[in-house]
């Protein structure tokens, strides 16, 4: 309190830095929002000349393919979640046992696809998929997305199963429940918040995936990121920005829910 | 726990709802276009609905694979994959590839001859309807439209536009960074600018365009490319064909090479200031047609022929290609001209006159020269 | 993204433990049913990752037109893209270091800051880019950083720069800005997590002895969380190396990142050889980064 006057410059500096940071974070976002409602924005106008929603109509008209791409994106994301969860539940259950031999090696194996630049793998997957007739199919794209999401689903599932109270499983077994029954009535329900959190991550990864879809899916399977990329390179900034907004909403929504499912104790166990 | 179950149900419901198959009652004619968005829109919004009206029960599905070699390469891969897999009925009925890849597809036996069996075949009179970068494609293709590259400029910023590469170099020296192009990896308008440069300074333009192929004709390229490298220090690089137009729109550059068809599409959309103009500079810049072709084992080949017949009829070429989009017709201009008022016809040549076109519209180089040229640019100019 | 990273700290140091544990057959046998549960997931990784990876390593040395083996793809890659290789390395390194610097600064303020409101605001602010898909970031930056984009327009309106001074940032600078913008929150999250786990009493003691916050940060906090900082740097480096969409959207002209060149070789020429050679080069960069980390980890443990 004594040197309150002396602290004013520090407070001003702090506020200024925070403001600057806010501008850096939100400036690009604001710019994106402006483009979604700019009908014409010529040089040298600092802000759009005409405002309006006419480009929204263009994006959402049935021929434009944005709705189709949105449908594809969601459908592929849902399938990716189903496939990777189906793979991750048994794998995570196995890895949750600390006594498992070579456990760290297995954990590391699932990390590998994330630890190398994906693009060189993606283009070779595309090449292999051509031979198998998987290029340009939903199956092919879902497989590529699953690979990208697997580390999250397996690691989180493993942490979630590790958090299951062993005594309760024991108790169920002592009461005569079969291993299957014990798994489905005790372990799985207890692990489900973690598994749902991992599903949300996988969903978002799939929604955002670009390079795998670019090589394996295009042109037959168009997803929102591909549409966005095409619109951006064609210089359709309005269309690209509206598509970007479409992509942005689920990410923000899901990120707000994910904290509910990812308990701190599960978080602390991931990958250990 | 409740929320979790709800989410699960939602996810499943969403999945199942989307999985419901679309109705298969109608025949779907699949058109894969290796062009910019404006060419895809032309089929989606104009040609497709017209064809559907004339042929009830048919649905035209247009698929864009993106412009330039990369886009057309996707078409090649798609067809090649089905051929290698021994598929009897291919899932593409009409393709719209660029010149380079059309030549490759004809050589690889991926296309069928159809031109002599459609009534509009006789209108395919241009040189490019016979040869695509040195490959004989007669019979396999109908040109959709001819496009041309030219310099677009903003008259408010450039009062006296250059009319040749020499003048352009002087102008750029005086106005550094005001000229922009999209390099080589990023769209054909940039490639076209480089090709024009090589025609001007690389020597032997006639042999490069017509053949025969001999590496000896490339000896003088290095000097021309070194000069281009120096020139590049004073220009702005733009992100793509559309990027050049966009930077013109945003006033970030004052001049740059563009595709004439895209230029007019953008102007019509209100995405370019109305005052922008075009100039085709000497000794010439290249242009190319996009072709309609039918894959060798297209599922709906008969329907595909009908579609192309409509697309290359003088009426559609006049009203769709020329009047609506201001693109140069792909078929015999005389057949198209008679369908239009003198005013509509002359509007096509507002900035670039027929005399300019006759003198300065060039083809792209022979395929092997073209490949060499691009690789040499990557090695000498870019790297 | 961030979940995996929190834990790399835990996984990698565990590896040496493997060499000590002998897994005799009799010890493995009771685990076989459980191990079988891993098979489907492992199969996916092998078929979709290990096999294509091997494919790419092999075909980097293959000239498919001539049908011979050799280093010609690397020669060609060097001839055409040497500049891009250096640019990629430079951009990735510079971005990673900037990320490390800002992440330490933000995380440091979050754990040492005394004004609770400022800490709360900062905490709320810094996470945003985490939620935004990479492609969307590319599109935003493309319009934001252009010569007459919103950023320059705002600076002009404020009178900071003259219209003629405005330059486009859609080159290496734009890429660095974009990568830092997108990757900063997850590095910060990691580092802030590690800082939060530190023993507060020592920090308090140092503060009580009159050490400034900056000194506490540099002298006490950072040395203790250095492994986490390194992990976050390396992970940022790897993810930046593999981004295709951002350089394609911001700056596909020359010079650019090698991911664009790889896509270009495949898309335009279906030349997998040179593309795979470039892929191998980017993996070599990752491998160097990973070795650096592992060696550092070994040294740390050696000291203990």
Set down the secondary structure blueprint:
The complex is a heterotrimer of chains A (272), B (383) and C (304).
Chain A: H1 4-36, E1 38-40, E2 50-51, H2 54-60, H3 66-95, H4 103-115, H5 118-132, H6 138-162, H7 166-174, H8 179-208, H9 211-217, H10 224-233, H11 237-261, H12 264-269
Helix pairs in contact in A: 1-11, 2-11, 3-6, 3-8, 4-6, 5-9, 6-8, 6-9, 7-8, 8-11, 10-11
Chain B: H1 2-19, E1 27-33, H2 37-54, E2 58-64, H3 68-84, E3 94-96, H4 99-107, E4 131-132, E5 135-136, E6 142-153, H5 165-174, E7 180-181, H6 188-201, H7 205-210, H8 221-232, E8 236-237, H9 241-249, E9 255-259, H10 260-268, E10 277-279, E11 285-292, H11 301-311, H12 314-324, E12 328-329, H13 333-337, H14 342-347, H15 354-360, E13 361-362, H16 367-382
Parallel strand pairs in B: 1-2, 1-3, 7-8, 11-13
Antiparallel strand pairs in B: 4-5, 6-9, 6-10, 6-11, 6-12
Helix pairs in contact in B: 3-4, 6-8, 8-16
Chain C: H1 2-20, H2 25-28, H3 32-59, E1 62-63, E2 68-69, H4 72-112, H5 116-126, H6 134-144, H7 150-157, H8 172-196, H9 200-208, H10 213-241, H11 245-250, H12 258-269, H13 272-303
Antiparallel strand pairs in C: 1-2
Please explain how this structure is put together.
The complex is a heterotrimer of chains A (272), B (383) and C (304). Chain A is built from 12 helices and 2 strands; from the N terminus they run H-E-E-H-H-H-H-H-H-H-H-H-H-H. Chain A is an all-alpha fold. Chain A has 2 domains: 4-54, no CATH class; 65-269, MetI-like fold, CATH 1.10.3720.10. In chain A, strands 1-2 form a two-stranded antiparallel sheet. In chain A, helix 2 (54-60) packs across helix 11, helix 3 (66-95) packs parallel to helix 6 (138-162) and helix 3 (66-95) packs antiparallel against helix 8 (179-208). The mean pLDDT of chain A is 82. Chain B has 16 helices and 13 strands. In chain B, the strands form 4 sheets. In chain B, strands 6, 9, 10, 11, 12 and 13 form a 6-stranded mixed sheet that branches. A 3-stranded parallel sheet of chain B has the order 2-1-3, with helices on both faces. The longest helix of chain B has 18 residues, at 2-19. A two-stranded antiparallel ribbon of chain C has the order 1-2. In chain C, a hairpin with a 4-residue loop joins strand 1 (62-63) and strand 2 (68-69). The radius of gyration of chain C is 23 Å and the shape is globular. Chains in contact: A-B, A-C, B-C.
């Amino acid at each position: 309190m004594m040197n309150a006057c002396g602290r004013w410059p520090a407070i001003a500096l702090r506020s200024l830095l925070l403001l600057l940071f806010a501008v850096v974070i939100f400036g690009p976002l604001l710019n994106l929002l402006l483009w979604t409602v700019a009908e014409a924005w010529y040089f040298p106008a600092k802000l759009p000349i005409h405002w309006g929603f006419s480009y929204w109509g263009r994006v959402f008209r049935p021929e434009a393919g944005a709705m189709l791409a949105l449908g594809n994106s969601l459908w592929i994301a849902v399938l990716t979640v189903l496939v990777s969860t189906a793979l991750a539940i048994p794998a995570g259950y196995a890895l949750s046992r600390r006594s498992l031999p070579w456990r760290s090696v297995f954990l590391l194996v699932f990390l590998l696809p994330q630890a190398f630049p994906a693009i060189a793998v993606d283009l070779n997957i595309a090449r292999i998929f051509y031979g198998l007739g998987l290029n340009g199919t939903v199956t092919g794209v879902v497989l590529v997305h699953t690979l990208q999401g697997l580390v999250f689903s397996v690691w989180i599932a493993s942490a979630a199963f590790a958090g299951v109270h062993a005594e309760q499983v024991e108790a169920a077994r002592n009461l005569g429940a079969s291993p299957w029954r014990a798994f489905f009535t005790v372990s799985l329900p207890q692990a489900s918040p973690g598994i749902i959190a991992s599903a949300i991550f996988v969903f978002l990864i799939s929604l955002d995936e670009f390079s795998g879809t670019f090589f394996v899916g295009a042109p037959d399977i168009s997803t929102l990121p591909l549409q966005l990329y095409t619109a951006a390179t064609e210089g359709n900034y309005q269309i690209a920005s509206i598509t970007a907004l479409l992509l942005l909403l689920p990410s923000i929504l899901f990120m707000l829910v994910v904290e509910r499912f990812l308990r701190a104790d599960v978080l602390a166990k991931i990958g250990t | 726990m409740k929320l979790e179950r709800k989410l699960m149900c939602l996810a499943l419901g969403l999945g199942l709802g989307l999985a419901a198959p679309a109705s298969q009652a109608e025949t779907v004619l699949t058109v894969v276009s290796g062009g910019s968005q404006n060419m895809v829109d032309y089929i989606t919004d104009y040609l497709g609905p017209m064809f559907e009206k004339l042929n009830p029960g048919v649905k035209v599905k247009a698929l864009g694979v993106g412009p330039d070699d990369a886009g057309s390469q996707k078409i090649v891969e798609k067809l090649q994959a089905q051929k290698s897999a021994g598929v009897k009925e291919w899932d593409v009925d009409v393709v719209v590839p660029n010149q380079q890849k059309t030549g490759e597809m004809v050589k690889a036996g991926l296309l069928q001859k159809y031109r002599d069996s459609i009534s509009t075949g006789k209108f395919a009179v241009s040189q490019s309807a016979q040869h695509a970068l040195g490959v004989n494609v007669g019979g396999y293709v109908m040109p959709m439209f001819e496009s041309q590259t030219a310099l677009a400029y903003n008259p408010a910023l450039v009062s006296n536009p250059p009319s040749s590469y020499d003048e352009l170099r002087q102008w750029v020296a005086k106005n550094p960074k005001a000229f922009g192009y999209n390099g080589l990896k990023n769209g054909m308008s940039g490639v076209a600018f480089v090709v024009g440069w090589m025609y001007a300074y690389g020597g032997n333009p006639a042999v490069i365009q017509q053949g025969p192929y001999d590496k000896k004709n490339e000896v003088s390229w290095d000097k021309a490319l070194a000069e281009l490298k120096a020139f590049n220090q004073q220009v702005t690089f733009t992100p793509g064909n559309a990027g050049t137009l966009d930077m013109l729109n945003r006033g970030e550059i004052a001049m740059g090479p563009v595709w004439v068809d895209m230029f007019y599409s953008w102007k019509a959309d209100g995405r370019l200031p109305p005052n922008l103009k075009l100039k085709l500079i000497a000794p010439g810049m290249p242009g190319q047609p996009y072709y309609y072709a039918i894959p060798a084992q297209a599922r709906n080949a008969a329907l595909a022929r009908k579609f192309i017949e409509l697309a290359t009829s003088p009426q559609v070429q006049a009203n769709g290609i020329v009047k609506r989009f201001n693109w140069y017709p792909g078929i015999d201009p005389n057949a198209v001209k008679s369908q239009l008022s003198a005013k509509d016809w002359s509007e096509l040549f507002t900035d670039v006159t027929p005399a300019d076109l006759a003198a300065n519209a060039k083809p792209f180089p022979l395929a092997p020269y073209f490949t060499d040229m691009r690789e040499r640019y990557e090695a000498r100019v870019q790297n | 993204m961030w979940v995996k990273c929190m834990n790399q700290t835990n996984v990698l140091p565990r590896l040496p433990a493997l060499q000590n544990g002998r897994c005799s057959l009799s010890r493995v046998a009771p685990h076989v049913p459980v191990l079988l549960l891993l098979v489907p997931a492992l199969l996916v990784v092998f078929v979709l990752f290990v096999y294509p990876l091997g494919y790419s390593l092999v075909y980097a040395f293959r000239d498919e037109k001539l049908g011979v083996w050799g280093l010609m793809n690397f020669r060609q890659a060097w001839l055409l893209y040497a500049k891009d290789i250096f640019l990629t390395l430079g951009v990735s390194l510079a971005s990673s270091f900037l990320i490390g610097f800002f992440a330490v600064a933000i995380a440091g303020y979050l754990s040492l800051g005394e004004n609770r409101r400022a800490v709360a605001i900062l905490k709320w602010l810094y996470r945003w880019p985490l939620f935004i898909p990479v492609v969307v970031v590319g599109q935003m930056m493309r319009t934001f950083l252009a010569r007459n984009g919103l950023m320059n327009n705002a600076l002009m309106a404020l009178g900071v720069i003259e219209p003629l001074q405005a330059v486009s940032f859609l080159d290496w600078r734009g890429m660095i800005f974009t990568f830092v913008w997108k990757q900063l929150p997850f590095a910060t999250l990691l580092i802030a997590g590690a800082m939060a786990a530190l023993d507060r009493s020592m920090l308090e003691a140092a503060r009580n002895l009159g050490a400034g916050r900056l000194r506490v940060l540099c002298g006490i906090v950072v040395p203790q969380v250095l492994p986490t900082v390194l992990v976050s740097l390396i992970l940022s480096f790897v993810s930046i190396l593999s981004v295709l969409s951002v350089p394609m959207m911001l700056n596909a002209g020359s010079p650019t990142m090698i991911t664009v060149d790889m896509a270009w070789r495949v898309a335009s020429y279906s030349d997998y050889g040179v593309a795979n050679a470039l892929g191998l080069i980017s993996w070599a960069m990752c491998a160097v980064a990973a070795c650096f980390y592992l060696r550092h980890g070994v040294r740390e443990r050696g000291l203990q």
